[in-house]
Every structure is written in structure tokens, then in C-alpha cells.
TrEMBL record, chain A:
UniProt-listed InterPro entries: AAA+_ATPase (IPR003593), ABC_transporter-like_ATP-bd (IPR003439), ABC_transporter-like_CS (IPR017871), ABC_transporter_ATP-binding (IPR050763), P-loop_NTPase (IPR027417)
Name under which the protein is recorded: ABC-2 type transport system ATP-binding protein
Classification of source organism: Bacteria, Bacillati, Actinomycetota, Actinomycetes, Streptosporangiales
Annotated CDD domains: ABC_DR_subfamily_A (cd03230)
SUPFAM superfamilies linked to this entry: P-loop containing nucleoside triphosphate hydrolases
Record's subcellular location: Cell membrane
Domain of life: Bacteria
Family matches, as Pfam families: ABC_tran
From TrEMBL, chain B:
Localization per Swiss-Prot or TrEMBL: Membrane
Superkingdom classification of source: Bacteria
Positions of transmembrane segments: 21-39, 45-68, 89-113, 125-147, 154-172, 210-230
Keywords on record: Membrane, Transmembrane, Transmembrane helix
Residue span, ABC-2 type transporter transmembrane domain: 10-181
Major subcellular location class: membrane
Topology relative to the membrane: Multi-pass membrane protein
Protein name in UniProt: ABC-2 type transport system permease protein
Keyword Hydrolase carried by entry: no
Amino acid sequence: MAIIEVHELGKGYDGHTVLDRISFSVAEGEVFGILGPNGAGKTTAVECVEGLRRPDSGTVRVLGLDPFRQGPELREHIGVQLQHTQLPETIKAWEALDLYASFYDSPRDWRALLEQWDLADKRNTRFAKLSGGQKQRLFIALALVGNPKVTFLDELTAGLDPQARRATWELVKRIRAEGVTVVLVSHFMDEAEELCDRVAVLDRGRIVAVDSPAGLIDGVDTEYRMTFRLMDANGPDPGDLLGNLDEVASVSRTGDLVVVSGRGDFATAVTACLARERVLVSDLRIDKRTLDDAFIALTGRSLQA
Amino acid sequence: MKTLTKLTTVETKLLVREPGAVFSLLIPLFILVVFGGSITEGDTVLLPIAVTLAVGMVGLYLLPTTLATYRERGILRRLSVTPVSPGNLLTVQLLLQLVLTVAAVSVLLAVGVGFLGAHTPRAPHFLMTCLFGTAAMFSVGLLIAALAPNGRSANGFGVLLFFPLAYLGGLMQPVEHMPDILALAGGYTPMGALRQSLHNVWSGAGPTPLSLLTMAVYAVVISLVAARFFRWE
């Protein structure tokens, strides 16, 4: 069942189109990524879904409700972590959770959330004294305290060091494991690849693809490489064996090191051929294609640039 | 109801932790006590100055800085994605700042009347004057909050307005020693009108309709302008 339905959503500011009639839907229980470079319209899209902005055109339904017209009703059931929001400097962690819990009809137990998000020993710490990672965990806890069916996490790991980012990823997996649908806005490819069940790739206000990260990567039709070493350098020449395979573009050999490049699922064809011919290899490596490659293929430029 | 109670409790704690709130209580009191030693019994000048100072500090500093900071930090925006409207937070803040003003004025009155030999003013006159004066000063504060992009600049605007207004209002030196034109103009500033009215209250004459009208006009016009320009984010 779709928990979020966006149909032909359009939004512009001052005659400048930010969202060009985008459509997507999010299924219950999935982690759905909205991915794109800064300025692609990700935040605007999510803000329309959250009811913070009024769409110029198209329809948005979240849990069957219109976010803009039925906002108060909807907000009981969504949890949001916004980009660039802070809490008052002097509020203590427990006070913030206790306060936000009081906003909802059937909140979660905030004490349990403090424990769960590893903030129990920081309960009496003022917001300004929390580390970046602790603040981020508090924001997630605040997004969950209303016991939402959907959470929106906007650039959750921006500004965190690599270790804290990885830790935050584990937290997102935990939210998903609890059955809460997650909409994740990110401009980090690795993050989307690691966390998302499906990703909408947004570029200049348009959705250029919606698929699973693996599906997006498989959709990329560019050459990539695999390398291996021959166990028996005097055996049959791999160039003769592999050169005839349709998927393989080129084979080169330096001593016992062989580099094969090809398209699509060429690696399976190569390994099958080697096994059939009883050629033993070691150090087999396949260059990992990443979502970044997929993004470049879809938009013609790199996301990280 | 549970939400508003909790919001009020938390906001009260935050206000108490705010150094500005403590200053608004202590600075006017300090001035009253320091200069209070040298005044004669039945003085009609010092308490009006101290009370005006207290109302001015809350209205021109604390209120706009707090509200602009809340907007700057995205706290109002964050609230607008919860079932609670950010308007609730503004209302609670406004009421708390009002309570703080009442507390500051009460302390000044208690010390002035109890220890320094000032007369007890006539309650209806005093309350009416304070009400109009606070409304005028708070609306200026709301305008600053509406126009300032962040807490720091709200504070800056506050300082920028506070000293000229305090001077024109006769808080820095006696009105008799000021150039006539400035003294006259000062009567039409929020601080000047409030101080003058309080002076009249303690003198026994009661506030002049003109002073009350001046403050009322500020309260109404400036709050409307503030409401017009206020942004949630």
C-alpha cells in the first residue's frame, strides 16, 4: 500500500521552476530516498509532502490526507527532522523530548527513546553542550517521539564525521526495523545505496529515475573492469577464451595478471567460462559500480562535484 | 491543555536560564537602590525611571532577541511540522515576558515603597499607565523581532533604539536640563510617555490623556506593522 502519493507536483518561486511536475509513491515500511545535488529541489519536494509548502499544481497525499489542507490531522502521524533546525541552547535533552511528546495524542515513552538512542547519560545536558552526533540522535528521537507512521529525515548526516555518519546509518536501519516508513533526503550516494529500498533521483526539478539502488546501478550501460591472476601461467590463454564472449569488450594480460572489461553482466559470463575451461584464478576482483556511476549516466554529471 | 502547560513550564525554565531575564530584573533594581539613598521622601522621579527602564529592557531587548532567535534557529519551523502551531509558542513567550515585566515592576515597587520611602501610587492610575506603557514597548519589541534577520541583530536593533529612546524619554538626565525641543519630542516616545505618566501618577495628578493616547497609538500601530512584516522562517 502506498503511504505517500505524489502526482504531477509542481512548485516554482518568482517565475523560476523548482519542481517540474514530479510523481512518485512511497510504500509502507520502505526507506525511500530522494537523491540529487544541492538545488535539485529535494527539500522543496519534501516540504510540500510535509505540508510546509503549498504546491502550485498536482496532488500530494500522505496517509490519504492532503498535507496542506489537512495538516493538523496529518502531523499527528508524521515525524520530521528538518535541515538547519536547532533547539534552544539551554534546553536539556529530556526537556525537549518531554515537551515534544506532549504535542501528540499517543506519543512514545520518551524515557525509552533516550535509552534507545544512547542519550540516557545526556538527559540533563543542555542542547548547546551536545556533540554533533548526539544532537543528531536527539533530532531523530524527536522525530520519533510522536509515534509516527512516516518519518522524514533531511540531510541527516550533513556535517558529521565519517564515523558518526556510519553510526547514524545504523540508526536509520533501526527505524526501518521498527516498521516506520522513512523518507530520506540526501545528496550522498553512498548513504542512499546503503540505506534505501528505492531511490528517486532528482535533477533540476525533475525525477530522472525511480528504482532500487541496485536497479539503478544495473541500468547503467557503461564498461567496467574485473581483474584476476592466473594460477597456472602456462595454461590456456585467457584472451582466446574470453575474447569471443559477447559481453566482453577487451582482455589484456601482463604476466599472470589479467584485466577484462565489458558491459552489463559480463562478470558472470567470464567466471562461467573460466569454470567451464577449468582455468583456476586467484585475487578475483570486480570493480564495484556505484550509484554515483548511475547518477552520472542519468544526469550527465557527477553528484559529488 | 497538557501541551500548553508543558510548553509554559519549559519556556519558563528557559527564560530563567536566560541571563537577559536576570539583568532585566537586577539592573533597574540596582539603579533604584544606588540612587535611592540620596532621594528625599515622596520622590516622584526615581521610581518612574526605574520602572520605565525595566519595561524597556524586557520590551526592547529580551522580547525581540528571544523571538528572533527562535525564528533563526528554526524552532518555529520545527513546531509547524508538529500538531502544535508555532503561534502557541509565541503566545506563551509573550505572556511569560509580560509576567517577567510584572515581576520586575513589583520588585521595584516593593523596594521603593517599602525601603526608600516612596508613596504608594494610586492603583488604578498606576496599573493603567503600566499596561499602556508595556503594550507600547512590547509592540516596538515585536517590530524588531519581525524585522531582524537573527537574534544577534535583534539585540543590536534593541541597543540602537534603547539609548536614544532612554535619553529622549528623560531617563539619562532630567527633562528640565534637556533642550526644549528634545524634551517635547521625548514626550511622544514610548519611554518618554511612560516615564512622564508614571511621574504624574506619583505626583498624584494621574496620567495625562495625551500620554496615554501616545502609548496606545504606538501599541496599536506598531503591532500592526510588526504583524504585517513578521515571518515564521
